[in-house]
Amino acid sequence: MSRLRLAVVGAGHLGRIHARLASALPDIQLTAVVDPVEAARSRVADEFGAQAMADYRELFGLVDAAIVAAPTSHHFQLASELLRGGLHVLVEKPITTTVEEAAQLVRSARNRQLVLQVGHVERFNPAFTSVQEKLYDPKFIDAHRLSGYTFRSTDVGVVLDLMIHDIDVVLNLVQSPVEQIEAVGVSVLSGHEDMVNARLRFASGCVANLTASRVSHTNRRSMQVFTSQCCANINFADRCTSLIEPSEEVLSRAFDEKSLNPAQQEHFRENLFAELLRKHDLPTPDVNAIEEEQLDFAKAIRTGAQPCVTGSDGLDALSVAHTILEQVAAHQWDGAAGSRQGPLAMPESPNVLAGPDRWSLDDTVVIRRKAG
């Protein structure tokens, strides 16, 4: 079987990672690296034995597929033209900047019977794949994705930069229509929102709470998933997962804590997570998630099967992300009578909030002034 001829379009931080991993896979031939910046494309192409190109149009007839790792604002133009040229496409997340553009890409790939995969790489994270089959019909999800300011992906805000990962994972787990979204966010350093909290309510009854920040002093990529049968603690950063599974006595509501004598209470205090809420760490394979993503892309091209993360999945995640952004933009920091609205309206400091029926700060105690 001939090797899949692959190009990487975009020679930045992520493009270099894609090129490095693809160049080491036996079934893939890294053929070209494309970037308008000569120094960037030459550096990556020379490092991994590929041809450097300035224009992606030179790829037609030369390669079978392309990975688009350019800035988000260029995703639609690049992916749409590559699809029209007959190439299979893996486009990094988010699929595009607008829902309409994403829908066009999905239609274009379907009409041409080409693979369109979206780079929601956490679906391939071993911390997630090791527990995914246990998480049937989740009822509450709490996700945190926090990082410092990297000065990358500044053409979009934190929702399309970071939170989009968790949106995709949640949609994949819940498999139910979103009925309501509430969100609040604020811009700190960039011209977009840098911190956001969103709450999603699904028709199934599941509630998902998502928090993302790219101006955090700590780094965190974690998710807790609660079902009627278990609770999973997923650490995407460290690629490890623990699972808590209640005993049959707890699940059937047969455990009666009021009937316990003091000695029994002490026993279960010390053995709570060994006997009643049994906690254990799951084995996770030592794999690279981006490499697994590339292998899935190649498999879909060769077999005609759907990739793990389809273009439609990327479209769904983007649609939810835009609804979150709409809620962030509509948030009124001072209630209906206020004038400050949206992520660029930084909340005023407490000493400014003076006057009747306003909060004020007296050293360490927050009090509410009475009108009059």
Which secondary-structure class do the elements indicate? Answer: alpha/beta
- CATH evolutionary superfamily of the largest domain: Dihydrodipicolinate Reductase, domain 2
CATH first level of the largest domain: Alpha Beta
Specify the CATH architecture of the largest domain.
Answer: 2-Layer Sandwich
Largest sheet report:
8 strands, mixed
As a percent range, the share of strand residues is: 25-35%
Question: What name is given to the CATH topology of the largest domain?
Answer: Dihydrodipicolinate Reductase, domain 2
Mean pLDDT: 92
Number of domains: 3
The helical percent reads: 25-40%
Oligomer: single chain
Order of helices and strands: EHEHEEHEHEHEHEEEEEEHHHEHHEE
Tell me the overall shape.
globular
Radius of gyration: 24 Å
